[in-house]
Specification:
Low-confidence stretches of chain C: none
Number of helices of chain C: 27
Helix content of chain B: 25-40%
Number of strands of chain C: 8
Number of domains of chain C: 4
Strand order of the largest sheet of chain C: 2-1-3-4
Oligomer: heterotrimer
Distance between the termini of chain C: 88 Å
CATH topology of the largest domain in chain B: FAD/NAD(P)-binding domain
CATH architecture of the largest domain in chain B: 3-Layer(bba) Sandwich
Structural class of chain B: alpha/beta
Largest sheet of chain C: 4 strands, parallel
CATH class of the largest domain in chain C: Mainly Alpha
Number of domains of chain B: 2
Mean pLDDT of chain C: 91
Structural class of chain C: mainly alpha
Largest interface: A-C, 35 and 35 residues
Chains: A mainly alpha, B alpha/beta, C mainly alpha
Number of strands of chain B: 20
Number of helices of chain B: 8
Distance between the termini of chain B: 18 Å
Strand content of chain C: under 5%
Mean pLDDT of chain B: 94
Shape of chain C: elongated
């Protein structure tokens, strides 16, 4: 390929035709309650790890559905349980996080 | 002799029903547990979307039911099914036999102390929508009087859409009430910055959307999409609230002089008690079950038991009034059968 | 004189040899499963006179006398100690008999067991009479225990057991052979009593059996039956719940040596699992059992599934537990179910790497002698932190609220999730933020934090104290003067403060200074978890409702006016479903000071 001295920036568009939602589907099996999320942001506001890694359960759920990588956010989570305690929809966020960390890129590992 | 119809609850639904029953030649009997008629509306200051004074509406409606029997500070002690109707025994000892009963027991304002992370009852700067209306009416509240109001926050959906608080339903009127109260506060404190923390703005009624646009355009009220989830005190004693600004995806904090919680509507515990007396069902949303939620919302599946207003779910004032009238028509049809 | 050997001893000898061999090799195996450091530590503890004495005492009291069971239910205690201690005495006295009357046969290990068959000794000497009397006496004791055991199978409620486990087929074989051993021994000795002597029990029996079945042909078959019953019991023992008998004798020295569970299936955990008698006390103890569907997730079933190597169920059971520790508190052998589960959780591999290297507390550093750390949970219950601050001000304590604007997590939730390595990394960061305050006293209002700070942090020179104890001390010193009200409070022992840290008295004494105190139906070490616990990974919000309601029923059995607790998480959980007010102990005291 000819080198023009520049490259095209990777498109920031979320292309729903191509996103990989396998982890999202796996998550729905493990913790079906995430479907109740209304993205109110309570979890993010109280999060102890938000200043550390930009952790936000709301964003994690949203990103998964759009096939966006979530590992950097999860890396700071301390599992303190504040998000579970404030969630108005009663989502077991700690189990969700643990399951995601466990099944993250499972296919690649296999 | 005119036929008795017992109306349980003297809020706007009960008053309107009594008025219509009188016009149709019945003898309505209102049983009200408080010492005045008008229910929650009587405690309010102004009503959206035209800022109509609530007192005007209640006074107007009450003046039209002179011929009705009204028992204030009275509750229903027992309700028994007879072969052709019901016998109602009141707490003042009076017993009434009637063929039709209208349940208009209304709603119960969610107890904001249950959402303890908001610090209602803990911090002096945290009040509810009802407290604010009370202040509008009476001009007296130590939590507001004499204090500087530079920043005011409104939290929508307190005890609404909240499974943990036991109410997963939308209370329907809080969004527009918050906008109304925000405008009123801005009028009283023109220099204050006002923030409304919402999850979804549900402005479905007549002129509500205009109301919302005016709030932004004419009053400069800020709308932040994110639910307040932690309220704390800073070392200087000021109140700090935390939320996520979900649209920018960033945690947000702001220091406030006053935080108003928009407590939602939940089923009145008295309603549940009365439902138990007549073995009426409670619907999955926690309110009374109607025979049909589309075309028969004012009838219960018990013969002779009719429903009006917020005992069957959250409603606005005009919806409640319209439903009271519809319920009276159903009662009339039932009694003339 | 009779022969030295008879073929009927073969079943017993085979069974005995098998079980001894099995236990010996099993023990060696388990010892080798211990990490090298632990093994060294354990072996050294055996020669330490203090631990050695403790081992002997504990084995005697727990394995033979079953003191813990006596405290739980005297009938159950008697049943166990009559069988265990009675049997032990029969074996011991059997050896004494051999030593006294047939010293040449001590090497034959079946001799003491079948002494009456091999040695004809009259009871006319004083020694003989006493020994025979004791033998008969202890046989009677064991038989009474067996009778109770049979009754227990039908009427377990008389023994204080509401629910128990269903035994497996092998368990049933073990059970029936155990039941058969002693009546058969009685019968066998009864047949031989006119030759080899006996006392008040077997001599009269001898008159009866000889009167009816005079034929001596019956003698040998009963000895055969006795030996076979023994042999069968020994042969199936390793595969039944009765494995707890030998296992517990190893568990006690392990525990006294202070070993930790490092692997969910090996070493210390393995001996704990084997020591589980499957009695099911933990079923009634477990707060999750309030919901019938959870009964199979109690510790007794965890142990059973681990023995059966049912990986799927082991994972489910391990993840569901709320880690309240009540099963351990009530377990007669002291199986630590929550720690086995925590070890199981720690085996899991996670694909996302944790990184706390940049973690800092968002609250600016403030120096003070007393540092108040509210913790994550108290940040969501501002009523508690306000009350704590108010009391500190009233007592004139100079303090710093070191996570006023947020802090780091204490690490206990990570530990309970089995993420031990990550927890240690985070704890290092949190420790730095505590040390930065330069405090001498670290005051905590959350028992979850309190436990981990006390157990894991090694904060030298800093007194780690829970607010219930701290405020009680201030009241004792006269720095806080609460006045009494007429309100009747019931105190709920939070799991991490009570069972977890052994603090039961101070909160009660503190509450008594400002209100009347009533007790819950089950309290202190038997307190029922509020079910808001962070210990459970999989229990969702809806699953917990019924459990919290059951805990509330237990609390309000004496119809108190209000509930007091000393944990923000318990307080929030109870408030959700309670009909009466729920307060933290700090709020109660603050309102009366």
């Amino acid at each position: 390929m000819t080198d023009f001295g520049f490259t095209r920036a990777k498109s920031s568009t979320v292309n729903l035709d191509e996103v990989d939602t396998s982890l999202y589907r796996k998550m729905l099996q493990v913790e079906p309650d995430v479907k109740r999320c209304m993205e109110c942001g309570s979890c993010s506001a109280v999060c102890t790890a938000a200043p550390l890694s930009g952790m936000s359960v709301r964003k994690v759920i949203h990103a998964l559905e759009r096939g966006v990588d979530i590992a950097p956010m999860l890396s700071g989570c301390m599992l303190c349980g504040k998000c579970t305690m404030v969630c108005p929809r009663g989502i077991n966020t700690r189990h969700l996080i643990l399951s995601l960390e466990r099944y993250y890129k499972e296919e690649e590992k296999a | 002799m005119k036929e008795n119809v017992v109306i349980i609850g003297g809020g706007i639904a009960g008053i309107e029903a009594a008025k219509q029953l009188l016009l149709l030649g019945y003898s309505p009997i209102i049983v009200e547990k408080q010492d005045h008629l008008g229910g929650h509306v009587a405690e309010w200051h102004k009503l959206f979307p035209d800022m109509t004074p609530a007192k005007e509406i209640v006074d107007q409606m009450t003046s039209e039911i002179g011929g009705a029997n009204v028992f204030l500070e009275t509750t229903v002690s027992s309700l028994n099914r007879l072969s052709n109707g019901y016998s109602v025994v009141l707490s003042n000892g009076i017993a009434i036999v009637c063929r039709a009963i209208l349940i208009a027991t209304g709603f119960h304002l969610f107890d904001a102390e249950k959402k303890e992370e908001y610090g209602y009852g803990v911090y002096n700067q945290v009040i509810t929508n009802r407290d604010l209306e009370h202040w509008f009416n009476s001009g007296k509240d130590v939590r507001i009087d004499g204090r500087e109001m530079k920043k005011i926050g409104f939290v929508h959906c307190v005890g609404s859409r909240d499974l943990k608080a036991g109410n997963s339903q939308c209370s329907k009127v809080c969004c527009v009430t918050a906008i109304k109260q925000a405008i009123e506060m801005k009028e009283k404190f023109p220099d204050a910055e006002i923030y409304c923390f919402y999850m979804d703005l549900r402005l479905f009624g007549k002129k509500y959307e205009d109301f919302y646009i005016n709030a932004q355009k004419d009053y400069g009220i800020h709308f932040i999409r994110g639910r307040v989830s932690e309220v704390g005190e800073k070392i200087d004693g000021s109140l700090q609230v935390k939320a996520e600004d979900t649209l920018s995806g960033k945690p947000l904090k702001v220091t406030l002089d006053l935080l108003v919680l928009m407590a939602g509507m939940v089923c009145n515990p008295r309603t549940t008690e009365i439902a138990r007396m007549i073995h009426a069902d409670i619907d999955t949303d926690g309110f009374l079950r109607s025979r049909n939620n589309i075309y028969n919302i004012m009838e219960s599946d018990r013969p002779g038991i009719f429903l009006a207003g917020t005992c069957t779910g959250t409603k606005t004032v005009p919806e409640t009034v319209a439903e009271a009238r519809a319920a009276v028509l159903s009662i009339h049809n039932y009694l003339s059968r | 004189m009779r022969p030295d050997f008879h073929p009927f001893v073969i079943p017993f000898c085979a069974g005995m040899a098998f079980v001894l061999g099995y236990c010996f090799f099993g023990m060696i195996h388990i010892l080798f499963q211990l990490p090298r450091r632990d093994r060294r530590h354990f072996l050294l503890s055996l020669v330490n006179p203090k631990t050695a004495w403790k081992n002997i005492r504990d084995i005697f009291l727990n394995c033979l006398i079953h003191v813990k069971l006596w405290k739980r239910n005297p009938l159950l205690g008697y049943m166990h100690s009559s069988i265990a201690f009675g049997w032990f005495m029969l074996i011991l006295l059997g050896h004494v008999e051999v030593l006294l009357f047939a010293p040449g046969h001590l090497s034959k290990f079946y001799y003491p067991i079948f002494f009456n068959f091999f040695v004809a000794k009259s009871e006319e000497t004083i020694g003989g009479a006493v020994l025979f009397f004791l033998m008969d006496f202890f046989l009677l004791v064991v038989l009474s225990g067996i009778t109770l055991a049979i009754i227990k199978r039908v009427r377990s409620l008389w023994f204080g057991m509401r629910r128990t486990t269903r035994p497996s087929v092998l368990d049933m074989i073990g059970l029936y052979s155990l039941w058969a051993i002693f009546p058969l021994r009685l019968l066998a000795e009864g047949f031989t009593a006119h030759i080899s002597g006996g006392s008040f029990l077997i001599i009269p029996l001898n008159w009866i059996v000889r009167g009816f079945l005079g034929n001596e042909v019956n003698m040998v078959p009963t000895w055969w039956a006795y030996s076979i019953a023994l042999g069968v019991f020994m042969a199936v023992l390793p595969f039944t719940r009765y494995m707890h008998i030998p296992s517990e004798m190893l568990l006690i020295p392990f525990r006294n040596a202070g070993l930790c569970i490092r692997h969910p299936r090996k070493g210390f955990a393995k001996i704990q699992v084997l020591s589980c008698p499957g009695c099911g006390v933990c079923i009634d103890a477990c707060p999750m059992s309030a919901k019938k569907a959870n009964i199979k997730d109690t510790t007794v079933y965890l142990n059973r599934q681990i023995r059966r190597r049912n990986e799927k169920r082991i994972e489910e059971i391990s993840d569901k537990c709320m880690m309240c520790g009540k099963c351990t508190a009530l377990c007669q052998v002291g199986v630590d179910g929550p720690l086995i589960r925590q070890a199981q959780r720690s085996m899991r591999k996670y694909a996302v790497e944790k990184d706390y290297s940049a973690a800092v507390s968002p609250t600016p550093v403030e120096k003070a002698e007393v540092a108040y750390f509210a913790g994550c949970m108290t940040q969501l219950t501002p009523g508690i932190s306000r009350a704590v601050e108010s009391l500190l001000k009233k007592a004139g304590v100079e303090y710093a609220f070191i996570d006023r604007e947020g802090g780091l997590c204490c690490g206990r939730p990570l530990m309970m999730s089995g993420r031990i390595k990550e927890a240690r990394e985070l704890m290092q960061k949190t420790k730095e933020s505590i040390l930065a305050s330069g405090c001498k006293t670290l005051l905590l209002s959350c028992p979850i934090c309190y436990r981990v700070f006390r157990e894991e942090y090694e904060l030298e020179g800093i007194e780690v104290i829970h607010h219930s104890v701290y405020f009680y001390n201030l009241v004792k010193e006269g720095r806080l003067k609460p006045t009494r009200s007429d309100i009747h409070f019931v105190y709920h022992d939070p799991c991490e403060l009570g069972r977890g840290s052994g603090i039961y008295e101070e909160p009660r004494k503190l509450l008594r200074t400002s209100c009347y105190l009533v007790e819950a139906a089950k309290n202190r070490e038997e307190s029922v978890c509020c079910s808001g616990s962070l210990g459970s990974l999989t229990l969702g919000f809806a699953d917990r409702k019924e459990l919290t309601e059951a805990a509330l029923r237990n609390l309000t059995s004496d119809i108190p006016d209000a509930i007091a607790t000393a944990c923000p998480l318990c307080r929030s959980t109870f408030r959700r479903y309670s009909d009466i007010p729920v307060s933290d102990i700090a709020e109660v005291i603050d309102s009366r000071t």
